[in-house]
Structures are given as structure tokens and as C-alpha cells.
Amino acid sequence: MKILNLKENPIYKTIFWILTNVLSSVGLIITNKMLMSSPNNFIYVFTLTSIHYFFNGLIMEFCAFSNLFDRKSLPIKTSIIMSILCSLSIGLTNSSLKLNQLDFYQLIKIFSIPYLVLIQLIIYKKIIS
């Protein structure tokens, strides 16, 4: 029996990463909601975000070490701006998750990507493929 090589066939690689993204996102959202709901009532949303980024960094280092992707670099100013914006984005979505029901949160999250594509089209006249 032949083992699938993700580097040889790009369609398998794409399917693998899509499934990994969906499963990890759903699992993380459900775990966060359980932490922030009673009886746990974890109130430190940005601390939770910091914990997520710490483990995400460890996993990314492992993946880079395992040659699952090629490491890229950004200029330091761009990197700092992206870090701040991404941290705020995750922290604020965790705050939204704490304040809203899980189904409403998931619905808004699902609609965010088509909304961003529409904004790109309207404001920048850019078509996303």
C-alpha cells in the first residue's frame, strides 16, 4: 500500500490543509466557548489569545523543521504591524465568542470571508479567485 506524499500531489496537500484548518478551527472555537462559559468563566480573553499564539508558534516551528512548508520573511515594520493586527483580530473575536451564542458566532465568522471578498471588489476593484 502506497502512502500519500503531500509534496508530490498538490490536490492532496490542498485537501489536507483545508481539512486541518476546518477541524482545528471548530475544535478551538468549541474549546474556547467551554472555557469562557460557566462553570469555568475564564474572563482573560487576551491571555487565552496569547496561549493560542504560543502553541501556534510551537506548531509552526515544528512544521518548518519538518519541511512541510518553506519559511518566508517580512520586513520588521510589516511584521510588527501584522502581529498587532492579527493579535487584535483574534482577541476581539474571542471577546465576541465570550459575549455571543456559539451558533451566532459561527454564522458571523462564516459570512466574514465573503464580506471581505465583496469589499475587495467594491473598493479596490480586485477580483479574488
> For the residues shown, what is the average pLDDT?
82
Describe the biggest sheet? Answer: none
The end-to-end span amounts to 36 Å
Q: Which descriptor suits the 3D outline?
A: globular
Topology pattern, helix = H, strand = E = HHHH
Structural class computed from helices and strand pairing: mainly alpha
Helicity level: over 70%
Report the C-alpha radius of gyration, rounded.
18 Å
Tell how many strands the DSSP assignment holds. 0
Q: Uncertain spans, ≥5 residues at pLDDT below 50?
A: none
Beta-strand residue fraction: under 5%
| Number of H- or I-type helical stretches | 4
How would you explain this protein's 3D organization?
α2 packs across α3 (76-99). The model has no long low-confidence stretch (mean pLDDT 82). This protein is an all-alpha fold and 129 residues long. It is built from four helices and no strands. The N and C termini lie far apart (36 Å). The longest helix has 27 residues, at 10-36. 74% of the residues lie in helices and 0% in strands. The relative contact order is 0.08.
